[in-house]
Amino acid sequence: MKKTIAALLAALMLIISPPCRNVYASGETTEESVKPAVSQTPSSEPKNNLELTAKAAALMNAQTGQIVYALNAQEQLPEASITKVMTMLLIFEAIDAGKLTLDETVTCSEYAASMGGSQIWLEPGETMTVHELIKAALVGSANDACVALGEHLAGSNEAFVSMMNDRAEQLGMINTFYLNCTGLDAEGHVTSAQDIAIASAELLKHEAVLNYTRIWMDTLRGGALQLTNTNKLIKQYNGAIGLKTGTTSQAGCCIAAAAQRDGMTMIAVILGAPNSKSRFADAKKLLDYGFANWELTDISGIQPELPDIPVTGGLEKQVGAFVQMEGKVLTEKGKGKDITVKVELPESLEAPVALGQPIGTVRLSLGSETVGEFDILSDRDAPKVTFGAAMRELWKGIVGA
Questions:
Q1: String of b and e for 350-368 (b: at least 16 CB within 10 Å)?
Q2: Strand partners, 341
Q3: Which of 52, 330, 351, 391 could form a disulfide with 39 if both were Cys (CB 3.0 to 4.6 A apart)?
Q4: Which one is catalytic: 39, 109, 118, 141?
Q5: The whole model's pTM is what?
Q6: Residues 39, 55, 84, 192: which is the catalytic one?
Q7: Active-site residue 162, yes or no?
Q8: Cis amide bond preceding 352, omega within 30
Q9: What domains sit in the chain, N to C, each tagged with a CATH number?
Q10: Residues 6 or more apart from 389 whose CB is under 8 A from it?
């Protein structure tokens, strides 16, 4: 009891005569080798020359969002019908949010029916379900179907295009500006290979999209209209799951190609290839490079030892620390064993400290590169000592005696 009362009296003295400065030192760090792999931060240009024919290209791991191969990946270029990746992202987000249903009926407007390029020849006033129009857009690249869906969701084509630009900004697609939802050539309608990869990875989070992007052949209007997928990789490449091709006179031949092997999904974006054969060949090279050189590893088994941290000016003398490290990370094949873990914690904390408050960092490194960071969190509250709180604790100590 004497020790308890002495500690509380000391706390009261801190309130009466607070310390002249905060103590928040960098603290010690510890390093240890671990086997789970993490991704290397890639350079903006490719380390290996794959001899692509395209003007620009990007290869992204869909799970981590990491670009592992880039060729002019930030250059603003037209994208043709790959625009429909963003169009479909908004549609599937609306479905998941309950704003649309697949069996909902859409009526084609005069404007939607007037679209040129790839189409299913919708007539003004003709109706189709959301499901049918998605199939037309993703398998047959139908421009009229995209506009009909956009108008139905947003109220007008202009409002839908505005939604597309807003979503691109939210996703950090800094080189993208949409003027339509179809990809038809328009001055100022631009994007970049990296931005397309970002939108593609976001679309793939909606697994229902694969019910359409993996279709090779199908029909509409009771079998009267045949659809054949414009993405030949669906038939030609092991693990191909989508996503979208595009071709116009300004954009050249383009593709956002996604493939999955051993639980890892890679997205290859090709812009401005000279012909259709070249875009597919370039996409295959990128995907082959990705699957041959990169792998995913579960890091949830990493459990660094974390000490308790002293707390000054608090009712608690110290707080425990914990870190939540889950998921999978990307690394070059065979380099996972070289990863190191660095724990960065202060020597002390000043009250108040809240349960779950970030108090430090676990940093994962591969060579000189930081490849992952996780917050270290407090495992309890440590309220600041106030006169009233100290008196209550003092009284508890006396009564408890």
A1: bbbbeeebebbebbbbbee
A2: 32, 364
A3: 330
A4: 141
A5: 0.81
A6: 84
A7: no
A8: yes
A9: 8-38+300-400 (2.60.410.10), 56-294 (3.40.710.10)
A10: 315, 383
